Amino acid sequence: MIFFCDRTFGKNFARTLGFEWHDDHFPQDTQDDHWLSVIGERNWIALSQDYRLHRQQLRREAIRQHRVGLFYVWGAQAPAEESLAVFRQAFGRICDIAETVDRPFIYRVQKNARLMQVKLADQ
Fold first, then answer.
1. Which DSSP string corresponds to 12-23?
2. From 23, 46, 95, 113, which residue has the greatest number of CB atoms within 10 Å?
3. What count of other Cβ atoms lies within 10 Å of the Cβ of residue 98?
4. 114 touches 90 (CB < 8 A)
5. What percentage of the chain carries pLDDT values higher than 70?
6. Which region holds residue 113: left if phi is over 0, alpha if psi is between -120 and 50, else beta?
C-alpha cells in the first residue's frame, strides 16, 4: 500500500514515514483535482491536512470518479512532531480502513488519534 502526502505536508513528514510526497511527482501549483485523479488511478492512499479538500466540486468529482481513499490528518497548525505522533498512533486503523473499506472514502484522523468518517456528499 502506497501513501501519498499532499503539499500541505512538508517533505520531512513524508520522508520520515517513507511515503510519497506531492512535490516529488507534481509541480507545486498542480490543481488538486489533477493529482487526486492521478493517485486514484495509481491506487495510492491520499493524506492531507486540508479538511476542506472535498468541498470543492471538481475535487469531489475527482475523489469519486477515481475512487480515492483520503485521510485528513490532524495537526496543520501543530508542530510536525505532534502531528506525526498522532498519525503513528492511528496508523494501524488507517491501514485497516485502507485495505477493507470500498473507495472512495474520506476519514479524518482526530487529535486523539480516533478516525471519523467524512461524508462525501454534495456540498
1. HHHHHHT-EEHH
2. 46
3. 17
4. yes
5. 98
6. left
What are 60-101's pLDDT values in tens digits?
999 999 999 999 999 888 888 899 999 999 999 999 999 999
Q: Is the pTM of this model over 0.90?
A: yes
Q: What is the pLDDT of residue 80?
A: 85
∠ at Cα 112 (48, 72), nearest 5°?
A: 10
User: Grid coordinates standing for 113?
Assistant: 488519534
DSSP 35-63: HHHHHHHTTPEEEES-TTGGGSHHHHHHH
Indicate the DSSP class of residue 6.
Answer: -
